Amino acid sequence: MSVERLAIVGLGLIGSSIARGARTYGLANTIVAIDRDPGVIERVRALGLANLATTDAAEGVRGADLVILCVPVGAIGTVAEAIAPHLKPGAVVSDVGSVKAAVVAAVSPHLAETNVFVPAHPVAGTEYSGPDSGFSTLFSNRWCILTPPEAADEAAVERVRALWQGLGAIVETMSPEHHDLVLAITSHVPHLIAYNIVGTAADLEEVTQSEVIKFSAGGFRDFTRIAASDPTMWRDIFLTNREAVLEMLGRFNEDLSALSRAIRWGDGEALHELFTRTRAIRRGIVAMGQETAEADFGRARNAAPSAPVQG
Ligand SMILES: NC(=O)c1ccc[n+]([C@@H]2O[C@H](COP(=O)([O-])OP(=O)(O)OC[C@H]3O[C@@H](n4cnc5c(N)ncnc54)[C@H](O)[C@@H]3O)[C@@H](O)[C@H]2O)c1
Ligand SMILES: O=C(O)C(=O)C[C@]1(C(=O)O)C=C[C@@H](O)C=C1
After folding, report:
1. Residue at 284 is within a domain
2. Model confidence over 89-122: pLDDT tens digits?
3. CA distance 144 to 168
4. 231 and 203 assigned to the same domain
5. Could you tell me if residue 272 is inside a domain?
6. Integer CA distances (angstroms), 65 to 161, 287, 303, in order
7. Ligand 2, from 128, 147, 229, 245: best to mutate by most atoms within 8 Å of Cβ?
8. Where would I find the Prephenate/arogenate dehydrogenase domain in this sequence (predicted)?
9. Which residues have C-beta within 8 Å of that of residue 224, sequence separation ≥ 6?
10. Backbone dihedral region of 37: left (phi > 0), alpha (psi from -120 to 50 degrees) or beta?
11. What are the C-alpha distances in Å from 192 to residues 5, 37, 213, 247, 264?
């Protein structure tokens, strides 16, 4: 099922990856790119990512069948409000925000009844931002979580599901609240830990900046990659998923205290037991990744030629 006219608002890592994938896998006849930054629009044109590229959101969404909001979580509501009067009746609106309940609350009040909102979150990304950092296979074999309201129009949900399956993602549906709780522990708190450990290391007087770089070949290097993620995006995530993050941080702090106690009292058995459990989890994830990588998702991968850019 391909979309006649797909509008993407925000052509950064995620928006530009959707544009690239939609083109490569033939998922949209016309792709419209909208970004408030003229420099981004210039890059979109140079890279040939869309048929039409504009900074004018009202003009960009006009006539679109599917509009995907790919801006930082804190800006999604404002963008929804700006585009709402210009949407055609029946146009489906979606997003890619890393937090769902706050986004639903920010977007839904602005949309007309015929413009169904189907929130989505592709659980795939990198520490890079901007239109040059995207790539068409970013979502391949990765989860995409949809959080539509229970009464959502099934055809609208299907349109969004089909797009993500076409991009290679494995689609799962859940409530926005459940999504936010799960992602708090699997994505948000880990990022906070990475930001914190890199900040702490950099602040230590005896560990100079150059030593942080010099000795970062091991585990610490993995933390520095995550801690290089976009500051605006992550500020918005922590401000909008506050309750779930604080709840998970509470659990995390309790477990960290237990670990400190085990170290203090020389409880090797407790340490060994935990490290054995966590190793099994990692090995399970790797094994599952291999399975999904081998699975055939049966998507049409007909590469379409790059379209001429207008506008
Ligand atoms: N980066 C990731 O790993 C990742 C993964 C999954 C989901 N997400 C979510 O995707 C969204 C976008 O993230 P990204 O990494 O692509 O960000 P990005 O910084 O690479 O791109 C965001 C783009 O949005 C544009 N923008 C910002 N405010 C705007 C506005 N009001 N109107 C129009 N354009 C505007 C910016 O100019 C920029 O080009 C976020 O909501 C984020 O939570 C990110
Ligand atoms: O791989 C990374 O760099 C990411 O951080 C990607 C990651 C994640 O935590 O898994 C980050 C935030 C998004 O909402 C989804 C994916």
Report:
1. no
2. 999 999 999 999 999 999 999 999 999 999 999 9
3. 10
4. yes
5. no
6. 14, 39, 22
7. 229
8. 4-293
9. 194, 198, 212, 216
10. beta
11. 38, 28, 20, 14, 25
Residues 6 or more apart from 199 whose CB is under 8 A from it? Answer: 227
Structural domain count, the chain: 2
Ligand 1 near 226 CB (within 6 A): no
Take residue 301 and report the two structure tokens written for it.
Answer: 């991968």
Query: Which CATH number fits the domain that encloses residue 233?
Result: 1.10.3660.10
CA torsion angle 153 143 196 270 (round to 10): 120
Q: What is the ipTM metric for this complex? A: 0.98
> Is residue 271 in some structural domain?
no
In a domain, 300, yes or no: no
Residues 165 and 194 in one domain: no
pLDDT-based confidence at 262, cuts 50/70/90?
very high
Is any atom of ligand 2 closer than 6 Å to the C-beta of 125? Answer: yes
Q: Are residues 221 and 158 in the same domain?
A: no
Q: Residue 311 in contact with residue 53, Cβ under 8 Å?
A: yes
Q: Is 144 in the pocket of ligand 2 (CB under 6 A)?
A: no
Say if residue 52 is in the same domain as residue 193: no
The verdict on the CB of residue 134 being under 6 Å from ligand 1 is no
Q: Which segments of 36-125 does DSSP mark as H helices, in order?
A: 38-47, 57-61, 73-83, 101-107
Q: pTM, whole model, 2 decimals? A: 0.92
Domain that holds residue 160: 3-173
CA distance 265 to 259: 10
Regarding the beta carbon of 2 and ligand 2, being less than 6 Å apart is answered no
Looking at the fold, whether 30 and 109 belong to one and the same domain comes out as: yes
Q: Is-contact 129 233, C-beta < 8 A? A: yes
Q: What is the pLDDT of residues 202-258, one digit of tens each?
A: 887 666 667 777 777 788 889 999 999 999 999 999 999 999 999 999 999 999 999
